[in-house]
Amino acid sequence: MAITFKDFSTEEGLQQLDEFVSSRVFISGHQGSLDDLAVFGALSTAPGTDFPHASSWYSKVSHSLGSRFPGEGVGVHIGVGGSAVAGPEVPEVAQLLPVTAAEEKEKEKEKEEDDDDDLDLFGEETEEEKAAAAQREAAKKASGKKAVVGKSSVLMDVKPWDDETDMKKLEEHVRGIQMDGLFWGASKLVPVGYGIKKLQIMMTIEDDKVSPDNLIEDYLSVEPASDYIQSCDIVAFNKI
After folding, report:
1. Which residues form the Translation elongation factor EF1B beta/delta subunit guanine nucleotide exchange domain (predicted)?
2. I need a surface site. Which of 38, 72, 82, 216 has the fewest CB within 10 A?
3. Can you tell me the distance from the alpha carbon of 167 to that of 116, in angstroms, rounded to the nearest whole number?
């Protein structure tokens, strides 16, 4: 069923978008789609700090577009109805053109100021993941035959009991779970309301060795982890 949004030029429309993406990675699922481009094009400018979830989503889409159009833009003016239009009044397709060098530098500055908001959980491999990949490659060569290992990339939400929960201790309990075939990746804290933040963390698993459901049930839902963790949800599960 198609998703309907209100006018993004109003605070009500931006609030609806902010609430909609607060529990989603992208508009229609866990991967970017034409729906994200349609909503991105309908916005005349990036949502402000009053709409943190929408702002974070906007940054991800903008970054994805910028990486696919690396050339330096010089600015575009498009005639509409006999008059030239520039800036936020440019038609939707024009708004999807590459950003200028100045805009790109400003985005980089914002990224340095708030790494958590712009953290790309599906970006480059962490040092731990690279080391694990190197170990697997060495094991293949040592065995003298090629081994095919089924792997998956999993994005998990870990929710605390309340706003007084020590999120640093919570993450320590999560990362403290070590087992063969489990590799923890990037993480960030995401506001959920009323001063409460949830931990969103990536992990890479070997399918025949680790089950996310068993990981949650046997390790994250029992003491001492359960002293900090109220619940866990699998947000995205992608085969590698």
Report:
1. 151-240
2. 82
3. 14
155 class by beta-carbon count within 10 Å (0-12 exposed, 13-18 middle, 19+ buried): buried
Question: Residues 72-79: contacts with CB within 8 Å, 24+ apart?
Answer: 72/98, 72/100, 72/101, 73/97, 73/98, 73/99, 73/100, 73/101, 74/100, 75/100
Alpha carbon 124 to its chain's center: 13
Q: What is the pLDDT of residues 126-175, one digit of tens each?
A: 777 788 888 888 877 776 655 577 899 999 999 999 999 999 999 999 99
Task: Give residues with Cβ within 8 angstroms of 62, minimum separation 6.
Answer: 40, 46, 99, 107
Question: CA-CA distance, 125 to 140, in Å (whole number)?
Answer: 20
pTM: 0.40
CA–CA distance, 8 with 171 (Å, rounded to integer): 36
Within 8 A by CB and 6+ apart from 198, the residues are: 157, 158, 159, 160, 189, 190, 192
Q: Select from 181, 191, 186, 192 the least CA-distant residue to 171.
A: 186
**At residue 90, what is the residue type?**
V
Q: In whole angstroms, what is the distance from residue 48 CA to residue 40 CA?
A: 14
Q: Which of 55-59, 89-93, 127-131 has the lowest mean pLDDT?
A: 89-93
- Chain-centroid distance of CA 78 in Å reads 33
